[in-house]
Give the backbone structure.
Amino acid sequence: MDGYPPASSVPQLPDGSGPPPLASVSIGRPGPGARLLAGLRIQLIVIGAVMMREIHTRFGRHHMGYLWLFFEPMILGGCIAGVHALTGHGLPGGLDIASFYIVGYTPYYLFRSIINRSASALHANAPLFYHRQVTFLDIMIARNLLDGASVMIALLIMLGGLGAFTNHWPYDLVWMAFGITLIMLFCHGLALLIVSGTVYGTETVERLVHPFTYLTIPLTGAFYMVEWFSSEVQELFLLIPTVHMFEIIREGQFGPVVQYHYDLGYVAAWVMALNLLGMLALRAAKSRIEFN
């Protein structure tokens, strides 16, 4: 009658000495795996937001707006291919001239775009660094992913249109996309090194980088195949990592109609080394990069 349950209804310990102690519930901190996933999720959101901002600032103020993201590489690649196709000269192995130069110059456009824009990448996005979650590496990843995606889409559109008119279709689009991805990763590592060098002055670095991209056109492998040269010259060209990447891209376009020369292990070593050195250089230069 006093409002308490009878003693017989209260749980007892096995020895009858009294009720069991209340279980204590401890709420621990999330494990390292959960924290890593949460951090990765935040950085992916940041990179996506930076990519959308980059699209708007680079193309949103122009006529036809965001379509220039794809039109720019399509116009340049299409013009180069058209000029060579109109000359009427043939290629060893009977390769289609237009598609050869499309899959040569369009990925080279990616190489040139990433390298030429890398020096000014951080200064162009300086206001974003007031946000604690945005890092230098996020900016570089977002810009380079955007360039890579735009080139892949432009290449698909051009090759699809060419195939509809000439019936020359890509042999393996996945393998071709793999080669373009290797170029993007290679250039990403170079871009990290270049942007780290801006501690000595952005304008100075830009004046060195732009001539570099033009002077290296004959060396990149964009407009020739290794098979066209003697074995001695082949060994020299194969020291250049981009030559292997363009060979992979052409194999994806033409298939086993000619012999290709590349070494995936050699390319992977270059890509990993450049990206590791680039991240270390960016980390070392972080405190010395100034924004006017």
